[in-house]
Amino acid sequence: MDASPTSHSIGRTITVLTSVSLAVSLVALGSFAGMQSLSRYVEQKQQGLVATAQIFASVAAPGARKGDTGEVLRAIRAIGKIESVVHARVETGGRVLASIGVVPQLSSDARLDETLVTEGVLAIMRSRTIEASAIIRDGGEPVGRFVLLAETEGLFAPLTTALASLFIAALISLGIGVSVAGQFRRQLLDPVIALLTSVRSLAASKEARALSAAIDAGELIPFYQPIFDRTGTVMAGVEVLVRWKKPGQGFVLPGDFVPLAEKTGLIGKLDAVLLRQACRDALAWPELTVNVNASAIVFQSAGFARRVLATLQAEGFPADRLMVELTESAFAGDSETLRGEIQALRQAGIAIALDDFGTGFSNLSYLQQFRFDEIKIDRTFVDKFDRSTDSAAIVTAIISMSRAIGMTIVAEGVERAEQHDLLSEAGVHYMQGFYFAKPMPAADIEARRQANRGAEAA
Ligand code: C2E
Ligand code: CA
Ligand code: CA
Prior knowledge:
This protein is α/β, with parallel strands linked by helices. It has helices at 5-31, 34-66, 69-76, 114-117, 121-126, 152-155, 157-176, 178-216, 258-264, 267-282, 296-299, 304-315, 335-347, 364-370, 379-385, 389-404, 417-426, 442-457; strands at residues 85-92, 95-101, 129-138, 141-151, 220-229, 235-246, 250-252, 289-293, 322-326, 351-357, 374-377, 408-411, 430-431. The chain contains 18 helices and 13 strands.
C-alpha cells in the first residue's frame, strides 16, 4: 500500500530531525570533557582490583603451593567483604583449587579482562562484571592464579549517574529538536548557568580571600603528631598537620579548608608557610624526623622539589630529617614530572612516604616503580585490625609484601592497646594514633621529648 505524500514528508522530517539530533548528541557525548576523567575512573577501579588480586595472591600463596583447599579458603575468605567482589577463585595447574562466591551468568561479551578496560567506558557499562587476576608466586615461582570478579554496579555508581545525565541531555535535544533546544539553551539555560557560576565563584572567592589573608596573617600553623617506634615508648618523628587558628573560633581542621586551598591554588602558599615554620620548630628536635604532607596538585607541578630544597636551605634544616608524604592521587597525573620531582627530592636526601595506603587499594605497580621509603597503612584498615580477621589478613599481607621490598611500615590511626600489640607483632615498624598522642602544638612536643629521653635512657 502506498503512503500519502504528507506522511512521507512527515516521515522524512522526523528522520532528518532524529539523525541531526542524534549526531549533535553524539558530538556532545564525544567532546564531553568528562569522558576522559570517566575512563580514568574506570582505569583506577580496574587497577585497584588488580592490586587487590595481587595482595590476595600473596596471602593465598602458601596454601596454593601445598594444594591445600582449606588453607586457601581461609586465606581468601576476606575478599568477599571488599567492594563489589562477587566471586574469587584460586587456580593451580589449570584447575580450580578453591573458590568463593558465585560466578554470575554472563553473556559472552560481558567478561572483560584488564587490557580491554581502557578501550571503552561504554563497553564496561554494558557488562555486568569486571575481572581481575594475579599470578600466585611462591618464592618467585608461579604456582597458580588468583582470579576475582566484581560487579560493576557498585563499582561504577558515580559513572552511571554521569552517563545518565548525558543521556538525558541527549534525549532532551532529541525530543524537542535541535533549533528549539538551541533556543531553549540560549534563552533559559545559559543565563541560569551564568548566574549559578558567578554566585558560586563569588562565594568561593570570598572564602579564598579570607584564607589567603589568614595565611599572610600567620593564622595557619603546624600541629605535630608524634610517630612512635613499635614499642610505643620512643618518639621517632612527627607528622606536620596544619590547623587554622581562626580568631574567636579555635582551631579549624584541614578538612574544612585544604580542599578550597587546593581548588584555588592557595595550597602552594599554605604548604610553603607550613614547611618553613615546621623547619624552624623542628630544628630544636634533632632526634626527630619530620613528615610533611604534599598535595598531589602541588607535587605534580614542576619545581616542587626546588622550592622545598630552597626552604630547607634558607632555614638550615637537614634534608635527611625530612620525609614528604604523598597519596595515591599524586600518581594520576603526568608521571614524568612526578618521577623528576621524586628523583630530585631523593638526590637531596629527602625520603618519600606513600600515605593512606590501602584506601581503594593502591596499585602495587607504583610500589615497584617508585620504591617508597615508607608506606603508611590507612586508618580504615588499622581500625578493624583487632576486630576482624579479614582486615587482619589484608594488613598482614601488606606488611609482609612491604617488608619484602624493604619499605618501612607505619600504621596510622592506632587507637587501642590491642591494635598496638597485634600490629607490633605483625611487623609494623612505627605507629601513630590517638592511643599514643594527638596532634599538638610545637610547645607540647617539647614535654614529650623529655619523656622520650627518659624512655631511651631506661
Ligand atoms: P593524613 O595525612 O592522613 O593525616 C592523618 C589524620 O588522621 C590527621 O587528621 C590526624 O589528626 C588524624 N589522626 C591521627 N591519629 C588518629 C587516630 O588515632 N584516630 C583518628 N580518628 N584520627 C587520627 P587532620 O589533622 O584532620 O588532617 C586531615 C588530612 O588533611 C591529612 O590526612 C592530610 O591529608 C591533610 N593535611 C593536613 N595537614 C596538611 C598540610 O599541611 N598540607 C596538606 N597538603 N595537607 C594536609
Ligand atoms: Ca599524612
Ligand atoms: Ca594518612
